[in-house]
Batch of 2 targets.
Target 1
Amino acid sequence: MLEEKKKQESFEIQRIYIKDVSFEAPNTPNIFHVNWIPTIKLNLNTTTKKIKENIFEVVLMVKVTVKIKEDLVFLCDIDQAGIFFIANINEKRLKHCLYSYCPNILFPYARTCISNLVSCGSFPQMNLAPINFDALYHDHIK
């Protein structure tokens, strides 16, 4: 019975934290008087690092760039990180866990932080849509 428990797949969130965050609005206050027809660019990236046996850091990097014509309205980026305990998972499932499941856990935290920063910058509320990290992962491995 004890041997079965040792072999059982295990996943635990140990910590979720902001590793880095930045908000820049270089064209304020003049940009507040411009007709609000922005273009929004969203970039995502994920990095992983094995800290020690069965302990992994996953960092979801989210960068939002908003422009009106050629003028930068604001740039907001966050490195939302988590430390995860993952044991007894084969290599294929481990990669899926690190590059899909963990970013899915981290994204709502990053989205909330970005929304708060944008609001504090006195810009219209920004609600990023949910991201299908499973689809992104499967596209990446093809």
Target 2
Amino acid sequence: MRDQERTLNQDVERCINVLQDFLDTGSAKAISVFSNKTSENEDWLEEIRVKYRIKDNDELQAIKMLKQKRLDQLEALESKVDYYEKLCDELEEFQDEMEVKAKLEQNRRSRFDSMTRK
């Protein structure tokens, strides 16, 4: 019975050792892959840094201010365009009214002239 127990314990220990070796190998592979990926990502990050230089905060702030200035100028131009479009519409309306008044005046004169000729 003791021999069976000892054999069983030895078998269990061998299983544990095999399992531990398997886990150690798997962990080592995972750590190696992770390390390689990390290294690749660091290299890629450095390439990106060189390729796309990040502007400092002062320069970014200057760009934002310039953008806002241009937006304000654009808004001012749009309001001027709106004003001139309305003015043009009013002038066209005024011109139409003047044409109507001129025709009415012409009709009055022609009637007046025809009345004075009689």
